[in-house]
Amino acid sequence: MRGRTRRPVGSITRGTTGHNRLRRADRWIAAAYGGLLRSASRPLVVDLGFGASHVTTTELYLRLRAIRRDVEVLGIEIDPERVATAAPHARPGLSFAVGGFELLPAARPPLIVRAFNVLRQYGEAESAAAWALLRSRIAADGVIVEGTCSEIGHRAAWVGLDASGPRTLTLSTRFTGFDQPSDLAERLPKALIHRNVPGEPVYDLFQDLDRAWAVCSPYAAYGVRQRWAATAETLARTWPVLTRPPLGGRARWRLGELTLPWEAVAPGFPQAAAERAG
Are residues 159 and 23 in the same domain? Predict the structure, then answer.
């Protein structure tokens, strides 16, 4: 019926947030898509499901403004009370609105969507449907960063998507935030977290990552940072780990990151094929 207000697509999350919780993802977005931001006309970035506080949306705005002074950032939340709480913190180029996975009321298709900790409560099929809806609403050259992190952001994992589908998986950790790399498995995005079982490539990935970590234990004498970089280099011998900028190589590894093409970990993708992809 004409004039009827459509209910936003999605469910209210716990809303947990805090200063610098998403700093790792923001840093990766700046590295991965800084060129995209600089070259775009009137770039719009959406922070989907910003939670009970404006803080991580505001931090995203400030970080991206350092790259592109006129970037617009829109925080979208399904809970009107959270939007009302965030609204007083709006400023030129930063705004907040009620909405969901349909990305309304964005004025135009966004160039970048950051969606963190919004799909954990959904089933795998529902998560896939949310991905499809988001992909249908972004700009032609737009991208989505969808993932999950711990309460203070020390462990995180996210998928980079574009209109054609998922492209990359990134693991990111603070070096004091884990005992072995497989500790990050608990933060896998919904599309993978239930696939961390024998027979699935993401399970094989963490098995091999832990083995590489053990093999590189002598590097611990030089610090965890050096051990992580050596582990990534070792893993890259059998997995298609990205080894060149902007998403790979020692500069990213020294930040506690590791990025692989999605095809290497896609559910049901045989490990043998993942190795050949390298």
Answer: yes
Domain count across the chain: 2
Q: What is the pLDDT at residue 16?
A: 66
Assess if residue 257 is contained within a domain.
yes
> What predicted TM-score, i.e. pTM, was given to this entire model?
0.91
Residues 203, 252, single domain; the answer is yes
At residue 4 the predicted structure's pLDDT band, cuts being 50, 70 and 90, is very low
In terms of Cβ atoms closer than 10 Å to its own Cβ (0-12, 13-18, 19+), residue 221 is exposed
On whether residue 88 sits in a domain, the answer given is yes
User: What pLDDT digit, counting tens, does each position of 66-105 carry?
Assistant: 999 999 999 999 999 999 999 999 999 999 999 999 888 8
CA 40 to chain centre: 21
Are both 258 and 204 inside the same structural domain?
Answer: yes
Report DSSP letters for the chain, one per residue. -TTPPPPPSS--------TTTTHHHHHHHHHHHHHHHHHSSS-EEEEE---S-SHHHHHHHHHHHTT-TT-EEEEEES-HHHHHHHGGG-BTTEEEEE--TT-TT-SS--SEEEEESSSTTS-HHHHHHHHHHHHHHS-TT-EEEEEEE-TTSSEEEEEEEETTEEEEEEEEE-TTS-SSGGGGGGG--HHHHTT-STTSHHHHHHHHHHHHHHHTGGGGGG-HHHHHHHHHHHHTTTS----STTT-SHHHHTTTEEEEEGGGTSTT--HHHHHHH-
**DSSP strand pairing (143-149 vs 44-48):** unpaired
Between CA 8 and CA 70, with CA 142 as vertex, the angle to 5 degrees is 90
Domain assignment of residue 118, given as a range: 14-174
Greatest CA separation for the chain: 68
